[in-house]
Structures are given as C-alpha cells and as structure tokens.
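Model the whole thing, not chain by chain.
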Amino acid sequence: MDTAQTYFLLTILLPLLGGMFTYTIGGKKGINVAVAAMGGGFVMSLILLLSVIDQPWVIRWKWVPGIELGWNIDTTAAVLMSLVSFISLLVHLFSKHYMFGDKAIDRYYGKLGFFTFSMLGLLASDHFLLLFIFWELVGFSSFLLIGFWFDDIQKAQGARKAFMINRVADAGLLIGVILLVVELDVNFISELKEMPFSPMLQLAGFGLMIGAFGKSAQFPFFGWLPKAMAGPTPVSALIHAATMVAAGVYLLFRTQEILTPDVLAVTAFVGGLTALMAAIAALTQFDIKKVLAYSTISQLGYMVMGVGVGAYESSLFHLWTHAFFKAGLFLTAGAVIHYYHHAHHHCHRFDAQDMRNMGGLRKILPVTFIAFLINGMALSGLPFFSGFLSKEGILSGALIWAVGHGNAVGYLVVVMAFVTAALTPFYIGRQILLVFFGESRTVNKPVEGMEPIFSVKLTLLILAVASIWIFSALNPFDGHGWWLGNLLFDDHVMPDTSHQFLLHVTMALSVILVISGLALSYRKYKPDSAVVLRFKTKQRPKGLLGKLSFNAWYIEDIYEKISDGFLNISKTSFQIDKKIIDRSIDLFGVSTVVFAKAMAIVDREIVDGLVNFAAWVSRTIGNAYTKVHAARVQNQLLWLVLFIIVIVLWLQF
Amino acid sequence: MSSWLIIGFTLVIVVPILYMIFTSNIIRAAYAFTLSLLGLAAIYVLLKAELMAVVQIMIYAGGVVVLLIFGIMLTRRQKGMELVTLHRDVALGAGFCMILYALFVSWIGESGLAFTEELVELNQVKTIGISFLTNHILSFEIIAFLLLVALVGAAFLAKKTDSI
Amino acid sequence: MEITLTYYLMLSAFLLCAGLLIVLIKKNAVFVLLGIELMLNAANLNLVAFSKFDPSLDGQIFAIFSVVVAAAEAAIALAILLNIYKTYKSSDLDDLDTLNY
C-alpha cells in the first residue's frame, strides 16, 4: 500500500469510523471522538492534496472478471475532498452546540460521518459504476439526515419526498451510466476523451445531465431542496449548500468531454432558467431557511449554466466560493433558529424559522450578524467578496458564449442570468434587514450561552473570513484569478483579449445590478418602513406573480399532480390486472394444479418407489457394513485373527 | 519318569484352561488360572529354569492373580449375584482359534526344531544376575523405569476422581 | 517317551490359542484380561523352552522381562477397568460403544 493510498483511505474512512464509534457507544460521550476523527480526516485530505499535486493518484482493481473498478484522485478531486472535509468539520463543530440536548445526538453524528464518507467516495471514484454506487449512498445518507427527526410526520414525509425526487433523477443517471459502460465501452472518468458524435452518446449525455439536475436541484427537480429543509440546519449547511448539491455540477464538470453541444445547450438554458425561477421564488418566502434554499438552487443554476456555456473553471470556482458562504449562511441561520427555539421554548406554536417573528437580532447575536452580513454580501456578488469573483467568471462566460453563438436562446440565457444577478442582492438584503435590523416583532430576550466561542463563533467567523476576496484571488476584480485555478487546470488561459470589451461590460453591469438590488431592498425593507411595520401580520401574497413566487412556481403541486396521475394509472391497471389478467392466471393455475395432481401420482408410485428402493439398498448395505465396523473391540479382534490366518495361509502357499 | 511328570503337569495346565474356556463364572476361572500358572511353574522347574519358576509363582500366582481377583470383585454389579459372564461369537472364535492352532501344529511339525541335546547349566541364578547387569543393563534399566511409570500411572488412574 | 522341544512348542501354541479364544468369546473385561495373561504365558513358555538349549540363558532373561511387563500391564489395565466401570457402570466390553455414534 503506497502512501497516497493510505492517506486516501484515512481521509474517507476516518469520518465514517468516528461517526460509527459515536453511534456505537451512544449518548453524548462519543461526540468529541467524531469531531476529532473528522479533524483528522480533514488534515489527511490536505496531506492527500499535497501528495497528488505532482502526479494524480490512480488505482484500479479487478472487481469481478472483466470489470475493473478504480479510484482516481487528481488535484480537482483532492481540492474538493478537502473542501468537503473542511465544511464537514465545521458542521461537526457547530452541531455540538446546535444539537446539544437532542436525545439521538449519537445517531446524528453517525449519520454525518456516513454522509461525509459517501461524499468523499463520490468525489474520488473513477469508474462510472463506483460513481453511481456512491451517488446513491450520498442520496441515501442525505435521506437519513433530512429525516433525522422522523417522529415528526411532516419532516419524515419531507425526507421521503426529497429522496423520491432524487430517485427519479437518478434513473436518468443510471441510464446514462449503463449506456456509457455497456454500449460505448467508456468505463473510467479519468480516461474520457472527445468522442465522435453518435445518438447513443447524445442519449447518455442527456442521462448524465438529468442525474446531475436531480442532485443539483435544477428545474424541474428543484422541489426537493426546500423539502430537505426539514432536516437539522447544520445538515442543510453541509448537504444542501456545500457538498451534495455540488455533486451534479461535479459530474457535469468531470464528463464535459463527452457532453454533446445539444446537451450543453440544454444544460445552459435549464441552468439559467433555474437560477431565475429560484431567485424569484426566494423573494417572497417567510421561512428563513427557505430563502436560503431557493438561493442555493439559484446559485446552483449559475454553476450548471457555467458548465453549459463552457466556463468550467468558473463553475468550479463558484462551487468553491459558494460552499463557504452558503454553508456560513446556513450555519448563521441555524444559530438564529436555535436562539429563537431557546427564547420561546415555552411556546409550542411558535415558529422559530418564520421571519415574521424575527427582527433586531444584531444586538443579541453580534457575531452571527457579522458572519451573516459578510456571507450575504458574498452571495449577492458585491465586489471585494468571493462571490463576486466567481459569479463574474460565469456571467462573462455566458455572455461570450451567447455572442459566439449569436442566437436568441443564448441571449435569453444571458438575460436570465443578469436578472438573477439583480434579484440575488434584493432577497438577501431583504433577509438581512428583516432578521437583524429594526425592532423585534416578538420579544427578544437575551439567552445565555447562545454563541459559545469554540463551536459557534469560531465556525461562523472562519466561514465569513473565507468569503472575503483575498482568500480566493489577489485581484478583487479578476474573475479568472482564482489561485487554485492554476493548480487545477493545466491549460489555464485567460480569455483571449478580443473579449476584453465583453468582460468590462459584464463587470460594470453586474456591479450596477448588485448595488441597485441592494439599494432597492434597503428602500423597501429599511427599518421603520411601512412594509416592515406591517410585516408581522403579513399574509401570503395575493397577486399572480406573488403566488407563483411564494409557491415556487407550483413545482411541488405539479409533483403532486404527476404522482396522483401515476396513482390513478396504477389504480386503473390494478383493476385491469384484477379483472382480466388475474382470471386468466387463475385458470392457468387451476390447470396447473390438475396437472400437478396427476404428476404427483406418477411421482409417488414410480419415482418415489425408485428412490425408496435406492434408499433401502444403501440402508441394507450400510447396516451390514456397520456390523463389520462397529466399535466392538472383540469384533475387530476377530477380524484381526481372521486376517492373520489369511495372511499366514497366503505366505505359506 | 521325567516324561510322565511333564505329561502330568501338562494336564495340570491344560485342564484348568479348558475349564476356563467353558465356564462362565469369572471367579472360578481366576482360580483355575492360578492352578494352570502353578502347573507352568512346575514345567519351568522341569525345564531347569528354577529362577523363572520362582518368578512365575511370586509375580503371577502371587501378584497378578490377586490383582485380577480384586478387579473382579470391584467391578461386580450387585452383591450376592453370581459372577457370571456371557459368551459371544463362540462359533467364529472357536473356529478361528482351532484353525490357528492347526496351523501352529503343522508349522511346528514341519520346522523340525526337535533339539534333544540338553545343556547342563549350574549356577543359573548367578549367570542371569551377571548378565542383567552387564549385557542387558539397558533393558534392565528400561524395564525398571517402565515398572515405576506403570505403577504410578495405575495409582493415578485408579484414583477416585469425578472427572474421568 | 522322549520329550522334545516340539512338545513345549505345542503346549505353548495351545496356551496362545486358548488365551485368544478367551479374549474373543468372553464378554467380561476381566475375563479378557485373564486371556491376555494366558497368551503372555505362552510366550514365556516358548522363551524358557528355547533357553534350555542355549548356554547364554538370554531366553530366561527375556522371559523375566516379559513377566515384569505383564505385571505392569495388568496393573494399568485394571486401573483403566475400574475407571470404565465407574463411568459406564458396566464391565462389559460391548457396552463401550460411545465412539460408535
């Protein structure tokens, strides 16, 4: 076993073992073990990253004759693995505070470890089958985590729905993988290269795309992400912001060589559409986590669109920065929710996630406020924050792509992207103003110990600091200046200078849009404004656009309708089944029984007779032989004497 | 004279042995066995092997038979019952043994080992004693050790334990 | 009537076959032991008879060894018998069939 293999195994197994250990010994005793193991896993992932910089580490082994499986860890995988380990470590830390007092905290940590293991395995797998296995493991472990509070029937249902929608999309991935492995004989992700166009390749590409859309919550699958908010908030930070939803983007990024132009165009369009739809949906939500969920979908739309328009590195860059600031946003939201839970724990009907009950929190949770502010600015794409840099790359990539193609759909994608860029600061500004500024719309009483240094302040501040531009690129206005980019992409080239004008246009436009979006949100939701004063009693929006936004384009109702339709089809076919098919089967069954009865007679009389005869023969022989062989000393002596006589006679004559 | 004596003692050996074969009473068989051992001792004397005769009487008739009789008594099932045993496979056993005896007789007859020149040996005991401690010293030591081990082992095996 | 070595060998063979017969047909373990002793005596008689014609007297010496071994064997065998009797409550050799199953 070489060193890289050791590092790799430690990286992916330490979180799992730590979690399993905690779960095994039970109670609160093992939490620190899980956190420590996760820390060890993070350190190992860094060492792994260092050891694969020069030479990607590839291992293949024979699974069954004819099928080889394999791991491949190049710098991209290693960077993402350390990212996942890092976020997971922070979530482990934060959960110590957030989940404190939960009865099943040992199970929680076991599930966290399992999820981290699956996600790391997904990033490292090279063979498509292995990828699919870990893809499903990730889905399953996220189902476990979302349904963590399964004694609440609604949360359990939410987990089930999220899982089922994922499964529908996974069918697409499965089709793609089977087509690739069986029909096109493409096995290893690291060996992908450009292939001549064929319908099969097109189909496989669409399959992979659908799978990626499912995991990354793109239209029409994005309904599962708000459902997944039923899980504990740190879980949302880990799974639904930083890691699992990025798997789809990662898959598209990895398979970019074999995606056909049609697939890429659809990807770009759906990405842009999802970004816009989710951003609109985020505008009117009351639930603090749902705003973040839709904003996640919107940002994922950006990434998918980035892959579609060919700005792969910007997509990966955005994945990187988004992981930090969105995890930070979710964790701060978790801190807010946790505070309201404790401040109002005597009131059972109180909804700790409803922004109508919040306000003025900046005095009570100052560190949380600062972290939320920085991460929110990064999300909105304000210059000097990390989100600006990566979003810049995607927007300019989309613009260059549209100009290059010059068709209407391309420009439509660009328009959707820029509208989203204006909506994002608006809804995040609205959220910051509603939650942290102004006066409280309920009673805000100080609760002791809401921001413990180690598990909350440190975690939140690390994530906030990581969202400042300097940790992503030196030049705050260079969307392609990601310092990890040089490491990840050998052919890292600046966009050619003919597009310099477009880059400047993009930058100017996006800065203007961000600032105007923020200004607009401040104008509407500034403290003491009429909207804010009436916000506590605000009901659901009445207008058409408002309804569409609040219900997220009714996508979940469409799911319901579709599943009802399927249910009806099933019922109808059940009736058909019962009336026609069952009868004929019954008839067939009866004739079979008659035939079997006849056969039974034959069987009993002839076959059994033969068998019994054989048994009788062997029993008789056996009995006779037993007499010879019996454990009677004197019998054996008798035979001994007989054989002495025989031998003597033999020798004599 | 000597011939008649030998034949007479042969009868003393053979008749109790035949009685042993036909009886089913163990204790009587043991006494018959003693009698035949004494007859053997007499034969040894007539073969001019006085030391062997003494050993036969002391060890066999005095030691082994006493041991056997104790064994018989210790494995008796019930008080007051006759110590009888059953026979098994009489026909087969008798047949085989008769065949074997016939074979032996025919061999002995054919072999012609009919030595007649007897060696007159004086001071047999002294000669035997000297060769025990010279020519056969190793065998002597080994047999002594074997006897010791056997006696210790017998004592251990017969020890009253619950777990054997 | 001349008594030759053949006579003693015949007698010895008779003792051996009688001992064997007893070993084969008696059910009681102690009786079987008696038979074994008889067979050993047959060997002794042979040795002593041969040594009558041998000046080195090795036959007698080995006969004495054989007597000693027979004594040791009898002691061990009886000890084993007692244990068997304790365990199986029987001294019948046909009852010792645990290994048969």
